[in-house]
Amino acid sequence: MVSFILSILHFALLSAGLLQENTQINGTTRDETGNVLTEVSIYLSSTATAEDGTPLLTRQVKSDREGAFRFAGLPFGKYTLTASHMGYQDQRFDILLDTQHPSATIQLEMAAENRQIQDVIIFGGTRTRQAREQAVRAVVIDVAKAAEQPTTLAELMNRSTGIRMRQSGGLGNAVDISINGFQGNSVQYFKDGIPLEYLGGGYGLNNVPINLLERVEVYKGVVPVSLGGDALGGAVNLVTKTQQHARLNASYEIASFNTHIGQLSAYQTIGSNYFVGLDAFYNYSDNDYMADVQVVDENANPVPVTVPLFHNGYKQHFVEVSGGIKNTLWADELRFSLAQYRIDRESQHPALMTNAYGALMTHNKGLVPSLRYQKKWLDQRLGLDQFVSYSTIERSRIDTVMGTYDWYGNFKPGSSMGESPRRSLARIDFDNIISRTNIYYRLHTRHKLEANLVINHNNRIGSDPYGLRFSGTDIDVLSKEATFHKTISGLTWESNWLNNRLINQATFKYFHFMARGINGFLANATDLDQFTETSNHNFGLGNAVKYVINHRSFIRASVELTNRLPREAELFGDSDTRAPNFQLEPERSFNVNLGYSYDTDRLHFEAGTFYRKTKGMILLVPVQPPFAQYQNLDSIRGYGFDLDLNYRFAKNWTFQGNVTWQDNRMVDIGEGLYKWIEGTRLRNTPYFFSNAGVAGQFSDLFGSGDAFKTYLHWNYIREFYLNHIPRDKEPQGFLGLFGKSGVAVTNLIPDQHLLNVGFNYYLAHQPITLGFEVKNVTDTKLYDYYKIQRPGRSLHLKLNYSLNK
Amino acid sequence: MKTINIFALFTMVIAGFFLSSCTKDDPDPLPETTEKYVLITLADRVSGTKAGFISAFDEYPTGTVSNATSGSLEGQGMGGWRVYENYIFKMFRTSDYATGIEKIEITKDGTVSSGQFIASKDAAAAAKYFGTGNLVIQNQTSGFYWDAAEPTKIQKFNPATMANTGSLDLSAAVQERGEGVDAITFRSVGQKLLAIKGGKLFANITYATSPVNQIGFFDDYFPDVYIAVIDIATGNYEKTIKIEDTGSIAYINENHMYDFDTNGDLYIVTQGRSALGGKSKIVRIKANATDIDSSWELKFSDFRATDNGKFVGVFAKNGRLILTLNTETLTGGGAGNINSADIWKFYSLDVSDASKTFREITGVPVGTNPGAAMAAVEVDGKILLRGSTKAGENGYYEYNAGTNSATLSFSVNVGGGVSGFHKIEIE
Prior knowledge:
Low-confidence stretches of chain B: 15-27
Number of strands of chain A: 46
Distance between the termini of chain A: 39 Å
Radius of gyration of chain A: 28 Å
Largest sheet of chain A: 22 strands, antiparallel, barrel
Largest sheet of chain B: 5 strands, mixed
Strand content of chain B: 35-45%
Oligomer: heterodimer
Helix content of chain A: under 10%
Distance between the termini of chain B: 45 Å
Mean pLDDT of chain B: 90
């Protein structure tokens, strides 16, 4: 791997030498708030003209994802540079190149054509908008627009169309996303295009403050080749803020349940070629919200009580320092980063809130150095983006207390170790190498090829003095190393037709994995020196097309046949009650998406629909008690639609709403005993949810130059069932949205309404913003997962400080 | 005001007339009873919490029926039940799979619901040590159960009010052996066997060696299984008897791990050394005795000399035992056959047969493990055998003792594999 990286760097340096030019004009494009603008059209023309009056030299480029652009190899002379971008006023500069000034650097600040609209409507002529309008459909959450709000990333995403975030408790608890019914491992997560596994859980949807992000791209259906994942039908890409200038941003949130969230982000350039940066955050919460539980009375009958959770805390820090070189002839950017994190989590209860734990802890810490190299050549027609990281991650679970706790926090001493069924002093070390190589080459103004390669190598080894042993031995099951290696490669061809009204992206992907370990389940016929090795590979194909109907509307469609490789934990188990299964095969899914988008100054409307057929879903199946094992079990066929509306109904007021309905059902049930499940809904999966909200913005409210934003968000989720219910017993009515099941269903997640209100206040002429929010205003009992209660009403106050140079 | 008073007086007179005529002239009405045939099915494939359905039918089911109807109850812990006359109990709570004793309520219109629940006094202990809710009913108002919170005691309860009424401390009986042995990690009494015969309570004593995962199951310290005998009237511990050279008496769930023959003889199953069998046997305590009958026992190796399986239940009637036995060597794990393959076949054996001949019962399919199900039940005088296969055969088959064969009585197409069938009367 190391030699491979060195080869890439060597190639880059060599290329830079070959392409060195004496003159150049370069620069960056940003909006008025300092955010980078991409795809800005930069037009360069010489003032010297031919006899017919046309410029002797003209060139055109677009700013890249860092907002950078560059023209090289220019003859001395005078030039006019014009920058234009949808939604922004054109910028124009005159430039002279001569022996005294062979190069010029231009920092373009694009002014919005209509500032009022840009502030109120969350979609504009920005990178966020471009991401939203690519041929591959993505729901783009404009996180930067909500940075001042005391809102979590999961809450922001929950307001978006077609996405349902589910969280098992308060701050820091696990978050899962449901996209078109795909959830769990069917959805993959990325940070700036890199598979998020490399950060080991220290950076994710459940813990990263929104201030660190510019946007979140949620892909429904086809996943772009550049993400290099084996997602089955959904992917989430967390896009961080791009830094070009000195910048300082800090925020602090204090909230109910002794919650404190701090964040610091700083960036400093040193000269024109060096930079250093820092991203850090700290999360802490007691999560001691009130919960309805049951205690036992003198008759041994359960009695409902409402108590504060007492061992539900979450503490985390994440620090990433980075530094590097930029804008040199051999590298547009070479960035070295070192991230360190630690998570300490109290565990209050088992899978359901049936009993209390008072001492069980889990820890997760990691150290993650990484290197990223980016370079474009040939007037940005050729680009390379290389990332490599080596993560050392340590996870531990400690359950050694001698006794048990009740819901009031009282301790009852006992004679055996562990308050859970799994006593533990486990420590598991993971070594993880991820390399991602992305290369594109623009063959022509209308054709672009992009190749992507992700290599993920993972080793696991650990120990637990109280854990399982191989049968008849004292050998710790965790002590035997497990290795997992996967390669995901892809190629896409993007082409523009009909004067850029038709964009087509054809993709090809190749997936491969190899796993090596000991199949130690119950030590059946296991030779401890005999490692089991398994591998599998598969192909994926996809195509996405977008057709611009007019300047207000477009349609797009995508179709994909893709794979999801088994995860390491699914193959190896957890050396406890989850048994290994080396016979697992990739899940396969065929997905079709169709969408329509309509835009005016006041209105944005979008409609989408999907079809999916997924085979061999990997599910945890009970085998020999108490063991369960991941197996390729079910097939799903589904379709659905979502509608999204954003409307500015008054000068200062905007309405936003969306609805999502999905009909994912079981198909191809093999076993005759379970044939009745054929056609029933996919269990434990939301099928209807909607959002509505209003936001208002007012300037000069309390004084000249200040601003005030207020908002209200309502979220509704229709009840859904934990188990299969015969189709003829499902709730009837339009789309199954009304009434109750024809069977007395006990195991359901009920209808729920969530109401949040808040405001932001921007101090006049100060880089300070104040945010306040009341979550769950009506103090409703909320559940994302069965019998796991979420927090009630809570108050949140957030202070933001932001300086841009 | 005057109008109202006159109207009230008139109403009282009319009401008094009708009420007095009822009490004077009508005979005391007999309490109405309604018969219900109650069926439980296990629908779970992935949750591991025994999801399924219970339905109540007005008449004995015929043909093919659905077990997910308008009055059915959906929930967890539908692995089976314990029944006593018109009581139906589950060892798992429908709402969350917590172990304990849940009473199933059925109304005259056939609506099934989960009723009162007796919980463990320490839910964390109950999650750690399986068996909380293992129960036996003495009569309408008295029963016994085990609670992991107090493992060396046997809890008493009232099945009518579903209230704990005290406990019997058997710590001394448990300590009669294995005291100070470090290898014994857990001790309990009544965790897996509670049976009442002749005014005596029989409760197994567990000496477990496993620190984790199914503590007390297939991890016996001693090769013999010990059973404490308690006099119910006095609550006094009397003695400990033992089943020699076998293994765990597990499992404790709802399949009949012991049964009384028509003559009152008690037959007890032990599953053997491991979950996959070995030294599994059935022993007998004669009707008028409190000791293991040393003159008779049935070993799995009597069925197959290789001893590659185990007994998983017993049904006794008129001196004949009905058993389900594995046709192939048992294997565990994800690809194992013990729980997921059609390998379990019905056999009958006459206790009086000195040759111990296992006779295959024809007409009922070779099916999946009846482990947490009622493999054989008696309803309306019919002996019904559970036939449930992966291929889809799923129902109860009526046994003909004369021909040693069974014919399909009714089958179930919706709701999962049949797990139990019982008849009750509702007043």
